[in-house]
Amino acid sequence: MRALATDALTKDYAVGFWRKRPYRALDRLTFEIAPGEVFGFLGPNGAGKTTTLKLLMQLVFPTSGRGEILGRPLGDLSVKRRIGYLPEHPYFYDYLTAEELLTYFAGLFGYTGAERRARAARLLDEVGIGAERRLPLRKFSKGMLQRVGIAQAIINDPELVIFDEPMSGLDPLGRRDVRSLILRLRDRGCTVFFSSHVLSDAEALCDRVAILARGRLAAMGRLTDMLPFQTRGWELVIVGVPDAAVSGLGARVRRATRLGEGRYMLELPPDVPPERLLGELTAAGAHLVSLNPIRKTLEEFFVEQVAGRQP
Amino acid sequence: MKATAWIAINVFRESVRDKVLYNLVFFAILLIGASYLIGQLTAGQDVKIIKDLGLAATSIFGLFIAVFIGIGLVSKEVERRSVYSLLAKPIHRYQLLIGKYCGLVLTLTVNVAVMAAALYAVLAYMSWGVSAEAARIWDAPALDPALLKATFLLLVELTVITAIALFFSTFSTPMLSAALTVGMYLVGHFTNDLRNFADLLDSRAVAGFMRVLSWALPNLAQFDVRADVVHGQPVAFGYMGLASAYAAIYVAMLLMISVLIFSRRDFK
Question: Per CB distance under 8 Å, which residues of B are interface residues toward A?
Answer without folding.
Answer: 2-3, 6-7, 10, 13-14, 17-18, 80-92, 264, 266-268
